[in-house]
Design goal:
With 213 residues, the chain is of the alpha+beta class. It is built from ten helices and four strands. 58% of the residues lie in helices and 13% in strands.
């Protein structure tokens, strides 16, 4: 990661406004905010091994209302590696967040069903493991809607379970498997069933949530 950071700084030079790292589930990622972004810069970054989430400064400011889930996830746990801290003053609208959550849960459910149909039995493991980084940001957004505080990712799953009265422990179990702290204890089909139940259940809960902010 350090080598990647240096490469990005070298490529972007004075065009780089902010470089930060953040977590999605258990995955560390980078976000780079630039004055401008053109194809020449993208071509140079493409030559590296890891790619940051890229925004211009204007896109960052204007994108908060469109992608509140993503920005809330970034803002929850980030570290500035270079430049200005443009993330500290970001304000997340609960109204916009609720609208995106409705879309995210429905689209993730449709995606999971479709992927299940296309994946062969031996490929289900990778599909199951991918759900933690994919669903962690929207789980974090659920805690924000009810002003629930959480620390690390496993704690977040516990808080969502208690705060919304729905069992999402399957995600905590998958998180532990990803971390090498546990192994698959059930048939892969059972994990898919439980994940579908989680997405369906929370989708119904989101439909009933009313926010005005």
């Amino acid at each position: 990661m350090k080598e990647t950071n240096m490469k990005i700084k070298e490529i972007l030079g004075e065009d780089l406004v902010t470089l930060a790292e953040y977590y999605t589930g258990d995955q560390k990622r980078l976000i780079a905010v630039c004055k401008t972004l053109d194809l020449d810069i993208l071509s140079k970054i493409k030559q590296g091994k890891e790619f940051p989430l890229l925004f211009t400064k204007e896109e960052l400011i204007r994108g908060v209302d469109v992608f509140p889930v993503e920005f809330l996830n970034i803002k929850h746990d980030y570290k500035i590696l270079h430049g200005e801290d443009l993330l500290k003053d970001i304000q997340i609208s609960k109204k916009n967040l609720r609208l995106q959550l409705e879309f995210e849960f429905r689209s993730k459910l449709i995606h999971l069903r479709s992927e299940y149909l296309m994946f062969k039995e031996r490929e289900l493991e990778s599909l199951i493991l991918s759900t933690v980084p994919a669903l962690s940001p929207i789980m974090g957004a659920l805690t924000y809607l009810k002003d629930l505080q959480h620390g690390d990712t496993p704690e977040m799953f516990d808080i969502v379970s208690r705060g919304y009265g729905i069992d999402v422990s399957v995600l905590k179990e998958i998180y532990d498997i990803r971390q090498g702290k546990a192994k698959f204890k059930k048939d892969k089909e059972q994990y898919i069933k439980e994940l579908i139940d989680v997405l369906s259940g929370i989708g119904k809960i989101i439909d009933e949530i009313k926010v005005s902010e």
